[in-house]
Write a structure and sequence with these properties.
Elements: H1 2-18, E1 36-40, E2 59-67, E3 73-80, E4 88-90, E5 111-118, H2 120-123, E6 130-131, H3 133-143, E7 152-156, H4 166-169, E8 187-188, H5 190-199, E9 204-207, H6 221-227, E10 233-235, E11 248-254, E12 262-272
Parallel strand pairs: 5-7, 6-8, 7-9, 9-10
Antiparallel strand pairs: 1-12, 2-3, 4-10, 4-12, 5-11, 11-12
Helix pairs in contact: 5-6
Amino acid sequence: MKTLILYLFFFLTLTSCTNKTEKEQPQTIPTKISDKTIIDLSHSYSDKTVYWVTAKEFKLDTVFKGQTDKGYYYAANNFSTAEHGGTHIDAPIHFAKDAQTVDQIPLEKLVGNAIKIDVSSKSSDDPDYLVSIEDFKNWEKNHGYKIPDGSIVLIETGFSKYYPNKAKYLGTDERGDHAVKLLHFPGLSPEAATWLVENRQINSIGIDTPSIDYGQSEYFKSHVILLEKNIPAFENLTNLSMLPSNGFEIIALPMKIEGGSGAPLRIIALINKV
């Protein structure tokens, strides 16, 4: 009986896939985690972690490390950090009054099917590159369907290759208020952010730079546009070059800080093994 039930399940799934048109999101048969390749998209936290030029940097203090007087080994640390630094999440409250805090973001926004928009060929020679509406439309044209509803959208600029070299990754290794005007790295244009929220139904968005807005932004319009619609943003991602353009899943779980505007993030991608 169990075999029959499984057969019927897979048959119905395949039938559903067959009936889909070319323009609709492709469907896949559920697979086990052992059938997946896991890609870590997170930078580790250390004294090299890249932070916004005005944010408190990561600090790790050793409480104890060694053999105790009772004969067993023991290690413990204290750490302190700003919410927004390293691989982290921007909760909607970060730029939208009364919006969701980190602990209020539905898990459905953080786990699910994903796509990747690769603009690295354009941003490699332009540290101020703005991801455009055309970049998203070209992805759709190349794949033959719209960005599927509920997608997690990742943007690959290629800038993670510079991490943690602050001068190359941020555009400056100086810190303080004056350094904000020295920032240079790619980001999402406000026009493209508006197009996404008005024409597509995405769950969240991520990028391999310090901010979803480009370095020279003064008003953080893309942040405002996205976060006002409760679309969280993942920043300082890495290893996006290891991902395909579609057909993978994301698990992005931040530290669950009550009332937090952001938090350190461990984010991974799951790709079907070939």
